[in-house]
Design brief:
The complex is a heterodimer of chains A (about 350) and B (about 375).
Chain A: H1 6-29, H2 37-48, H3 57-91, H4 104-118, H5 125-144, E1 146-147, E2 150-151, H6 153-177, H7 187-191, H8 200-219, H9 221-227, H10 231-236, H11 241-263, H12 269-281, H13 285-309, H14 318-338
Antiparallel strand pairs in A: 1-2
Chain B: H1 9-15, H2 17-20, H3 31-50, E1 79-84, E2 90-95, E3 100-102, H4 105-113, E4 120-122, H5 147-152, E5 157-161, H6 168-176, E6 181-184, H7 189-202, H8 206-227, E7 233-238, E8 240-241, E9 244-245, H9 252-259, E10 262-264, H10 277-283, E11 287-291, H11 295-305, H12 315-318, E12 322-325, H13 336-347, H14 349-354, H15 377-380
Parallel strand pairs in B: 3-4, 3-5, 5-6, 7-10, 7-11, 11-12
Antiparallel strand pairs in B: 1-2, 8-9
């Protein structure tokens, strides 16, 4: 194994960013309304030169009013889910951990729905409640997953899966029994969907939360490397395990809650992307966290572009695409590991 | 290929859309559509893999004209009509309205009934009436319309129907894109008539709207006079039979039944309640009411239900007291009055049989016969 240098981190990230940039161009180009490469290049040029006013108004609306915000949203959600998946995998020392499998996404969704039902007028109630739901769920799963004071890998996963199915049932209960409010859009929380455009202010809040969450987790990257080999060992090596765990649980729940509050519960991104990144670049968390963030952005952008285009003019929920692509890929990775 | 909706599928999908979320175009098969999708899918995959693409997704041009087409059309800013829609949203609609996109079957029917079809530039996969509406460019399903296509059509106004087809999120999204979106949200038949008149005003056809609603109201008043003081029939309106879904009292369908001198036996404030069969057996409704444009489907469903425990204990089913009404009853549009008259005729055959000369004229639009009357075959051929 080559030693990890700053040089290597930067070059790896630069390469991934190049892929992400190419993916953004593809996502800007394809869609229900055909847009030629020349027009796209011309209009991108206008934006870069600050001459937005010269654009035709429908290009502005379709490409920069609809596609670009959705692309940005998809990248942020994908990055948040992957980093939070990578952190749960380290803390729980379980390669199958992921916000969706552990029920954290469903917990966030329940929080968001309760906020929508009880506090429909309060601004930012939804993301905040999603965060609270996410953090409450991970706490519950963590305590349910312990046996004789030890974190047991199988019990933990089962606790997560059962919490997820319990919380999905709660969502269905709320959907079927709530009177007088239009909750027909709710299945979105179960499936994961990026089709609803959001006000710009929410994008900024999301970005700020993302930087804080990923930044906080990154400061613990070296400690996470040690924790993956065992909490006691890490403690002997001078890691303040309690503090690291607190920081990472809160940040990962923040990331999941934010992602869920804008996109519903999207599965498999947080599970698979860190795995693929580990296979490609090794399991050092100082490299794994930034590559997971960028890789998650690429993966969800790819999935959402497919969701937008395979069934034109109708769109699929992106969660259906990630599950359809993700589940077989996951089985493949699992079998490969066993061999 | 004729799109073929299964009975009640529209309402069923509204309630249980998480099972079909985003897949509603599957209702409308067709090799051509399939091929087009495959082509687009293949093209986007190729684009993803190679990062090099041919000149554009030609397939999508069927639904969306090239965006630049209508740009220089209106050099002068137009007058704005500021209205509040049924969701309480403030909407600014340029006048006169030249380009309408309908996101709901009921809105499409209303636009045709107002005689404004020339201004309708696109509608949804579910808009099947009048038959010409099927030929219009499509923007996807009412629940998941493709916003890009909607925006590219440069509508002056997008029409939505609150509690029968569309969700609030779609209106919010259109607001963010500064596309005027006007939603109706009828809970009673009075609301339906009022919303038709208001649509007439908003779209610049106030007179047609008033004439249309006046004649609809006259028919309802005449119907009420005719039905007189007959005790209301107690009915179970079956939206879907497995699981059993019915309607709540605060829906326009329940109100339509009330106009036809019938009452839904299910007492709930939920709009699309899942109902326990035990409860229905206990209540023993006089009639079962199904909404379908394909009565033969309902007949085969009934054959199946007669064998099932619970269902076979319903006297209405044993004695074949079943009314099959046109799917128009599911849509808050002018045709709902046809459906109300039809329900009344089926549930109160004695009143209509007494005075055959004064029976109500059957006002149905071209090419569509009223729903067959399984329960009272004698009345079907007077």
């Amino acid at each position: 194994m080559k030693p990890l240098t700053l040089h290597r981190v930067l070059w790896t990230c630069a390469a991934l960013l190049a892929v992400l940039f190419a993916m953004i161009l593809v996502a800007l180009k394809v869609g229900a309304v055909p847009i030629s490469i020349t027009d796209l290049a011309l209009n991108l040029g206008r934006v870069i030169l600050g001459r937005r006013a010269e654009m035709q108004s429908d290009y502005r609306l379709i490409v920069f009013g609809l596609r670009l915000p959705r692309i940005v949203l998809g990248m942020m959600v994908g990055g948040a889910l992957s980093v939070s998946g990578a952190s749960f995998q380290a803390l729980l020392r379980n390669p199958l951990a992921d916000p969706y499998v552990l029920g954290v996404s469903s917990g966030g969704a329940v929080g968001a729905i309760l906020a929508l039902i009880l506090l429909p007028q309060v601004a930012l109630a939804t993301p905040f409640a999603a965060f609270l739901g996410a953090i409450a769920t991970i706490a519950a799963v963590y305590f349910l997953g312990r046996r004789r004071g030890q974190l047991d890998s199988t019990t933990l996963l089962l606790a997560g899966i059962i919490s997820a199915s319990f919380l999905s049932a709660v969502i269905i209960f709320l959907m079927t029994t709530t009177v007088g409010r239009d909750l027909r859009g709710m299945p979105f929380w179960l499936m994961g969907d990026l089709s609803a455009p959001l006000p710009e202010s929410l994008h900024w809040i999301l970005l700020a939360g993302l930087i804080v969450g990923i930044g906080a987790i990154y400061t613990t990257a070296a400690d996470l490397n040690l924790i993956t080999s065992g909490e006691r060992e890490a403690m002997h090596l001078g890691v303040d395990v309690t503090r690291v765990k607190l920081v990472v649980y809160v940040s990962a729940s923040l990331l999941t809650g934010l992602a869920v509050s804008v996109s519903g519960a999207i599965g498999y991104v947080g599970l698979l992307v860190p795995h693929v990144m580990r296979m490609l670049f090794g399991s050092d968390y100082r490299l794994l966290i930034p590559t997971s963030a960028i890789g998650g952005a690429i993966a969800l952008l790819l999935a959402d572009t497919l969701a937008r285009t395979v069934a034109l003019p109708t769109e699929l929920p992106v969660g259906a695409v990630t599950a359809m692509v993700g589940a077989p890929l996951f089985i493949y990775l699992l079998r490969r590991r066993l061999r | 290929m004729e799109p073929h909706f299964s009975r009640g599928a529209f309402l069923f999908w509204m309630k249980l859309n998480f099972m079909r979320f985003g897949f509603e175009t599957d209702f409308e098969g067709g090799a051509q559509r399939c091929a087009r999708r495959l082509r687009i899918a293949a093209e986007s995959l190729a684009a993803l893999a190679l990062l090099s693409f041919p000149a554009g997704a030609q397939g999508a041009q069927a639904t969306a004209p090239p965006p630049a087409q209508t740009n220089a059309e209106n050099p002068k800013p137009r007058a704005l009509l500021v209205v509040e829609d049924d969701w309480g949203r403030r909407v600014e609609i340029p006048q006169p309205v030249r380009r309408i996109v309908s996101l709901a079957p009921s809105a499409t029917e209303t636009v045709y009934a107002l005689g404004l079809q020339d201004r309708l530039v696109a509608d949804t996969d579910f808009c099947d009436f009048p038959p010409e509406a099927k030929k219009l460019p499509k923007v996807g399903g009412p629940f998941t319309p493709n916003l890009e296509v909607v925006v590219s059509l440069k509508p002056d106004v997008v029409l939505l129907a609150g509690n029968s087809a569309n969700r609030k999120e779609t209106a919010d999204a259109l607001d963010l894109l500064h596309v005027p979106a006007y939603a109706t949200n009828a809970k009673t038949i009075d609301d339906v008539l009022a919303s038709i008149a208001r649509l007439g005003e908003v779209l610049g056809a106030a007179e047609q709207g008033k004439a249309l609603t006046d004649s609809l109201r006259a028919r309802l008043v005449e119907l009420r006079r005719k039905l007189g003081v007959a005790p209301p029939a107690r009915v179970l309106f079956v939206v879907w039979q497995d699981p059993l879904i019915s309607i709540g009292q605060e829906t326009y369908i329940a109100d339509a039944l009330r106009w036809a001198d019938a009452e839904s036996v299910i007492e709930t404030k939920l709009d699309w309640p899942h109902v326990s069969l035990e409860e229905v057996v206990h209540l023993q409704p006089d009639y079962l009411v199904f909404a379908s444009d394909h009565p033969e489907e309902v007949t085969s469903i009934l054959t199946g239900l007669r064998k099932l425990p619970g269902w076979r204990d319903l006297k209405a089913l044993q004695e074949n007291r079943v009314a099959i009404v046109s799917e128009a009853i599911n849509r808050p549009a002018p045709r709902i009055v046809d459906a109300i008259e039809d329900v009344a005729r089926q549930l109160h055959p004695e009143i209509f049989a007494e005075s055959p000369h004064a029976s109500l004229p059957r006002r149905t639009h071209e090419g569509r016969s009223p729903a067959r009357q399984a329960a009272t075959p004698a009345e079907a051929n007077p």
